[in-house]
From TrEMBL:
Protein source organism: Amantichitinum ursilacus
Keyword Signal included in the entry's annotation: yes
The keyword Signal is annotated on this UniProt entry: yes
Signal peptide interval: 1-27
Name of the protein in its database record: TraB family protein
InterPro entries found in the cross-reference section: TraB/PrgY/GumN_fam, YbaP-like
Keyword list, A-Z: Signal
Length: 312
């Protein structure tokens, strides 16, 4: 029965980055030095050009209505890569990964007061109590990172996956779902609880932060986007905030930047690839753009303006 919730969980998994990039954003990614561009042309002598597209993992029409340059780059590509390949088998694997073994309940790992506050918030995200009780703590936190389910268009990454399959393109991912979720599953339990409690106690901050992040993304303003993600997490102790700062800077952001670039080499050698990863992976000394340049590629920003109609 829990498989029916796999899609929502999968979409929340793609929202890892923006709600969690706290005080590390400015240190790890000096976004003020990056041009206002989320689409970059990747070139190397003797190889057809590819494109790098920075995404934000939401379904806001201002985000999912692709600009003409992005649409053209996507249409002309033969290969499409997202952070993880989103398909039915991935969602089924994910559904199994986030559910505790029989007899092990979330309520055994969090305090009663927070568990009772969690239930209606999960219900608003279309997760009934029977499903919530079986979630791992980190999985419940991931689901709480996104506001109550958006209606209408699919989140951008899932939309690109759908377009790739329907368009008959070679569609792949750079990471497995096990690699993505392993970042959370390996977190000490007290840190999982601290993260979940902060999200439960301050749900309005998630909604506000996502709205501000979308506005910054639509403006192609990386400096503003970084400032949004720099906002401190209310309710966390100084010790927990410091721990998350190091975790975010290393495993969640910089380590994955290097992994992405290493795994991009094969599709970039072939060319005609459209690569879509979270926008905050792009900037910085150890950001994907700079790492690709160090690997011998020329990256050129492509100016694109989101649809005026979608922005209204």
């Amino acid at each position: 029965m829990f498989a029916r919730f796999a899609r929502q969980i999968a979409l929340s998994a793609m929202a890892l980055l923006l709600p969690l990039l706290a005080s590390t954003a400015s240190a790890a990614a000096p976004a003020d030095t990056l041009p206002r561009a989320v689409l970059w042309k990747i070139e190397k002598s003797g190889v057809p050009a590819s494109y790098l597209f920075g995404t934000i993992h939401v379904g806001d029409p201002r985000v999912t209505t692709l600009s003409e340059p992005v649409s053209t780059a996507f249409a002309n590509s033969e290969h499409v890569y997202t952070e993880v390949r989103m398909d039915f088998s991935m969602m089924m694997e994910l559904a199994k990964t986030v559910i505790r073994p029989e007899g092990d309940l979330l309520s055994d790992h969090v305090d009663a007061a927070h568990f009772q506050k969690l239930l209606p918030q999960m219900q608003a995200r279309e997760y009934p109590e029977i499903a919530t009780r079986r979630l791992y703590t980190w999985a419940a936190a991931m689901l709480m990172m996104t506001p109550p389910r958006e209606r209408g268009q699919l989140p951008l990454d899932l939309l690109l996956a759908k377009m790739s399959v329907e368009g008959g393109k070679d569609y792949q991912g750079f990471e497995t779902i096990a690699e993505q979720l392993g970042l959370f599953a390996s977190m000490p339990e007290d840190k999982q609880n601290a993260m979940l409690y902060a999200l439960i106690d301050h749900p309005e901050d998630t909604v506000r932060q996502q709205a501000e992040a979308v506005d910054a993304y639509v403006a192609r303003d990386f400096a503003r986007l970084a400032k949004v993600t720099e906002q401190p997490d209310p309710g966390m102790s100084a010790a927990d905030s410091a721990w998350f700062s190091q975790w975010l800077k290393g495993p969640l952001l910089l380590d994955r930047n290097h992994r992405f670039v290493e795994r991009m080499q094969a599709p970039l050698t072939t060319g005609n690839a459209f690569i879509a990863i979270g926008a905050m992976h792009l900037p910085g000394k150890e950001g994907v753009i700079n790492l690709l340049r160090k690997a011998g590629y020329t990256l050129t920003p492509v100016v694109d303006t989101p649809s005026t109609a979608a922005s209204k």
